């Protein structure tokens, strides 16, 4: 079966600082017309850094959830920026660590309504240089034992998708 | 450090079929004002069903990425619907399997701009009843060997976050 949907008309309904919302008219595989609402996003990059068996996490208030979340260091790509460069930049800005990175995996966070790709890297070699968060970015760094991180995922204290995917992949690779 | 951001003014800029976009005025921890753009979403539910060592996946065109993705069966919660009920409903609609579910984990797909929670379940007992997709939903089901699914994640053929998280958790639990 041909599953492809054809774009009939592109329509941007909001253009903001971090995202653009499109509501396109599309033609479905059976010829019927419909609409697709989705976010156009520049992409994200994230880094799993494990030091002496401890995972480097950042605690950050996430307005959409109304609470502080634990996540691996991450950020949004600047226009045209390479994901590996963005990952290294965000890691250093948020945590003060400069690292050599290797690509671990990419995730599509929620394909029903965003085109974001989050590229996840492992930090292979790293050293502390001192942090320098962006203006308006308030966060705290914390090293947490890997076993404890797995328990926090298990009991729902860590839910961030990129963090779960990165930590799980790391654990599967070790075994 | 207090990381909390305070809502000064709520502002809905778009209300669509599957999502609502808010752009709120907020006060940052240092007192400065800023804006937060985020999607209000009713939540998602997904099911990992493994039968004779094979994972049940659906192939579906995802307009935001412009391609067909492999994902575990999933869908959006109806207003006020329990996530486990939604998961069982979506599983049966999309694949024809009726199942008893146990909760595996929740993920927050991309906390910077959505409040969606995706609740992921494992199918414990199941039987085939015949599928009945929603109007306008075009998809194909496929059972794929777990080892092959892991390879597809490894080489980037499967990137969907809920699928990666569910499969990895399942594999870690087995070991």
How would you portray this structure in words?
2 copies of one chain form a homodimer. Chain A has helices spanning 83-95, 146-154, 161-174, and strands at residues 6-9, 12-15, 20-27, 33-40, 44-48, 50-51, 54-62, 67-71, 74-76, 97-107, 118-128, 139-145. Chain A has 3 helices and 12 strands; from the N terminus they run βββββββββαβββαα. The model of chain A has no long low-confidence stretch (mean pLDDT 95). The termini of chain A are far apart. Chain A is of the alpha+beta class. Helices cover 21% and strands 44% of the residues of chain A. In chain A, strand 3 and strand 4 form a beta hairpin.
Write the layout of secondary structure elements.
2 copies of one chain form a homodimer.
Chain A: E1 6-9, E2 12-15, E3 20-27, E4 33-40, E5 44-48, E6 50-51, E7 54-62, E8 67-71, E9 74-76, H1 83-95, E10 97-107, E11 118-128, E12 139-145, H2 146-154, H3 161-174
Parallel strand pairs in A: 5-11
Antiparallel strand pairs in A: 1-3, 2-3, 3-4, 5-9, 6-7, 7-8, 7-12, 10-11
Please outline the major beta sheet of chain A.
4 strands, antiparallel
Could you tell me the strand content of chain A as a percent range?
Answer: 35-45%
Globally, the shape of chain A reads elongated
Span between N and C termini of chain A? 40 Å
Interface with most residues? A-B, 69 and 69 residues
As a whole number of angstroms, the C-alpha radius of gyration of chain A is: 18 Å
Number of β-strand runs of chain A: 12
The succession of helices and strands of chain A, N to C, reads EEEEEEEEEHEEEHH
Mean pLDDT of chain A: 95
Total helices of chain A: the number is 3
- Oligomerization: homodimer
